[in-house]
Amino acid sequence: MKQSINTAAKGSPDDWDVKACLFVTQEIGRFSVKFSAPCIGGTVNLNCSHITNACNPFDAVARFERETRAKGCTVYAVEQLEPVRPVCLSTTGYRVVQHGFIWLCLDTGVFVDVSEDGRMRRGDDGCQLPYYGTLARI
Q: What is the distance between the alpha carbons of residues 33 and 79, in angstroms, rounded to a whole number?
């Protein structure tokens, strides 16, 4: 079988036509944790927020504590920014969903193609996206 240089470099079209059901999904939404933080000089800053991926508000607070390691902060609200839904989470933390035959990275808004082994490339020009990591196969 003859193969062009472009096809050999990018992988055959069939390698990139995959379904989300082949990959591990998690129920994740996007939350904003609102908190007050002590400042130098003894004052308190009330307008702090931390955005995180979580499955519910309690998980968002736990992730806030783990991700920031902030000391002396008081959480006073958790706001849901995006609904909790099944998403494929890449090895580097990017959230990717499939709508029909189109894959979308929720964190960057970039349309991507996903290969059978979970690698991703830009959907518009085919450029590889190594910093997106890979999706885990089931």
A: 6
Structural domain that includes position 106: 20-122
SS3 115: coil
Beta bridge partners of 80: 31
Q: Answer yes or no: is 38 within a domain.
A: yes
Q: Is residue 47 part of a domain?
A: yes
Cβ–Cβ contacts within 10 Å for residue 23, how many?
A: 21
Confidence of residue 14 (pLDDT cuts 50, 70, 90): low
pLDDT > 80? residue 1: no
Tens digits of per-residue pLDDT, 82-119?
999 999 999 998 999 998 888 999 989 999 999 989 99
Kindly tell me the burial class for residue 81, based on how many C-beta atoms sit within 10 Å of its own C-beta (0-12, 13-18, 19 or more).
exposed
Specify if 13 maps to a domain.
no
- Roughly how many angstroms between the first and final C-alpha of the chain, as a whole number? 31
**CA nearest to 35, candidates 4, 70, 11, 8:** 70
